[in-house]
Amino acid sequence: MSAEKLRGLGVSSGIVTGQVVVLQSANLPVVPVPVPPERIEDEIGRLEAARSVARTELQDLRNRTFEVLGETYAGIIDAQLLILEDPGLLRKTAHRIQVGRIAAAWALKEEVGDYLRKFETIADGAFRERGGDLQDVHLRLQRILRGDVRGGEELPDDRPLLVVAHSLGPSDTVMLTRKNLAGFATDVGGKTSHTAILAQALSVPAVVGLKDITQRVRTGEEIILDGESGTVTIRPGANDLLEAERGRLTLEERESSWVEVESAPARTEDGTAVSVQANIEFPQEVEKAKAYGAEGIGLYRSEFLFLSRSPELPSEEDHYRTYVEMAARMAPAQVTIRTLDLGGEKYFHDVLDAQETNPVLGLRAVRFCLQRQDIFRPQIRGLLRAAAEADIRIMIPLVTTADEIRQVKALIFEEAGSLRAAGIPCREDVPVGIMVEVPAAAWSADILALESDFFSIGTNDLIQYALAVDRSNEAVDYLYQPLHPAVLRMIKFIIESADRAGIPVSLCGEMAGDEEMTPLLVGLGLRELSVQPRAIQPVRRAIAGMNTREAKARAMKALDLPTALEIEEFLLAT
Ligand code: PEP
Ligand code: MG
Asked: Taking the model in full, what pTM does it have?
């Protein structure tokens, strides 16, 4: 078969060639196949055999997970092993085969469907959310029943492995345990989707929005995944491979020239200092951030701490230790830790309500934290204790009203009092800032600035909410316009409000990492940007190559143009 090239959105740079693992789709085409009476026992035998294969697979996966990521991730697999061993599941499925004279796959699908419906009616959220693990076990058993015995898990560990999936959810995080994981390609997803952010954090190339790649490629086939051009070449020929290798070497050269660089502030031609900091998702990324010259951590997404321990919740001690260690590695530079931002289209966690009809507008981020103080307070205590020893700032995501800031501050006040009473060192005047990423917050930035120690503009969400465009949906990607006049006007107003109140303002959305945007952002008045580590050097170079006065004049002109396209053309001209 000849090579086939698919186009999507390149969301994490790099070019890699490797074998594909196609993750199972949640919608398996299982149909009710009748079984003659004399084959009923065989069919039940097949079900038992499938369970035994699944057990071996999960135990292997558990061992590998433990080796690579430690006990907390391995716990994800334990939950699935427990479900697999549930005697009721097998007994009831066997009963369905007998009574209905149907094949094991259909009987299992029906039985699991019943379980899931029961889970949904149980009020205890944690129990109900066990449904996700049950689904994973179900998919594994269905695959084995179809005769696809190892579903790609037997692929060798010595070659780069590329994960192809419809989308990547939390139950797929086990794939990240593979030492040779080298990239992602998904049917859906937008530029600032969390798959994209995760791929960048893991420093692997990713292409999203490929529409039907899961239908076009099979586990074990070779592809070239090019995060630069946003393409995937299936069954590449010799010339494709050669070209990919050339591209890879060029990128490697470019990147090696960035590593181990100074982290002094970048300066424009006319001497304006602009601080370029790093966005990270895993504490270990601090080393990468430093190597690329980060002047600090402008955004640590603490939801990853929750996800890595899921279904357990991190304890106060986990929070404290994680933050103190991360800040110590980054010292003397500052670390900004964002409090839990789960919900919306973000990674799923057991503690969330899977039934929200519109989660992007739902109980997400600070809204969730203020309702689930049992989860939020340990994080606050860990942060206050860490702040006593390290230069950290607390950042609240998705703030919509001043009242939310006040409520968080009241919790900080209470927890600081309780720590002090217990003789535990803490810093209660730790700087507390907010993400400005909801249009309501943007347009009341002058008010919110009076209650905040700093701002960070979250354009990933600000664009989503301002333009009513799902940031993870490639179908409306054309409308996801960072240069839309409404977005630029909001950014300008936020910066002016921060300046008037005398508080620092940064921008930490993906837009900050696009070096073509740098003159515009500096021209609008930003002096701090926080970007994925690999974008630090290109952004620093863009700063060094620009003139602040000129950039300001151009930014002001851009604000008067009617469309994103005209603004882009104007900025690119000259
Ligand atoms: C943002 O919304 O711009 C942001 C940086 O946060 P996240 O991408 O984690 O929502
Ligand atoms: Mg956000």
From this structure: 0.73
